[in-house]
């Protein structure tokens, strides 16, 4: 089952989750090395204000190229990093890098949209996390009101008071807290009932090709309504067409993200992409221009 040849092994990871302990250990070693050697990268995917068609934020998405030059998906190595206690170092690296890149966008190009960073539930469960975040932000020169933390589901935040306290503290210093992948796993009603979120991201399974699916329409429409009723900003992931965009806008959704606008791009490509917009405005969807 386990390929002796390491490039074959990476290909295996690429297609499937980690199969066994031996695979996981190999991958853990590779991941630690990649972090230490600055081999991880951040890709950027724009989020679009559906009223103005301007870029309002950029979601930073981590990328790891394995030894055979193939990307190992974050859905595979982030859970591993959580298991082996490496997630905290990775998240701090992500925040540091995202804010450095954000500073570059401001200083060199005058862009001032927000930056969205994915944070694991395991991060906020640690006391030290808040202090580390503060010192990274202070060193970065980026104001906290430009920063969004997207909390992903892997643990149930709402059951842990310490975690809730930490999220409150992040919110109190001005960071926008977003609940990611809403409608899946732990990102559910009990979370928005108890936690200080200001933004809700509807998972793409409800958004993609919404026009062709009555259920998706009903679920998404009522989710937007509920979120707006709670005063939350609503983001739709997985906008793939003009039709998706039009329907979501009609439902009252604030922000769209998806391949219709752009796939996640390496930072240099993202800058080129921004520079080609019409004064920060998307014209008509720029489908498939950059494929990572
Ligand atoms: P997510 O936070 O929900 O990120 C959105 C994912 O959907 C990204 O996958 C993005 O490439 C993909 N996506 C965006 N628009 C479309 C679309 O129109 N169609 C389709 N099919 N996909 C679309 P990606 O980059 O593979 O990331 C997967 C997940 O890994 C993320 O889901 C997030 O949970 C996690 N992740 C990624 N980067 C980080 C990170 O830096 N830290 C942590 N803790 N988790 C991360
Ligand atoms: Mg996210
Ligand atoms: Mg998401
Ligand atoms: Mg997701």
UniProtKB/TrEMBL annotation:
It comes from Thalassotalea piscium. Residues 24-278 form the EAL domain. It comes from the Bacteria. This is EAL domain-containing protein (Putative c-di-GMP-specific phosphodiesterase class I). The chain holds residues 564 to 855 of 860 of the full protein. Signal peptide: none annotated.
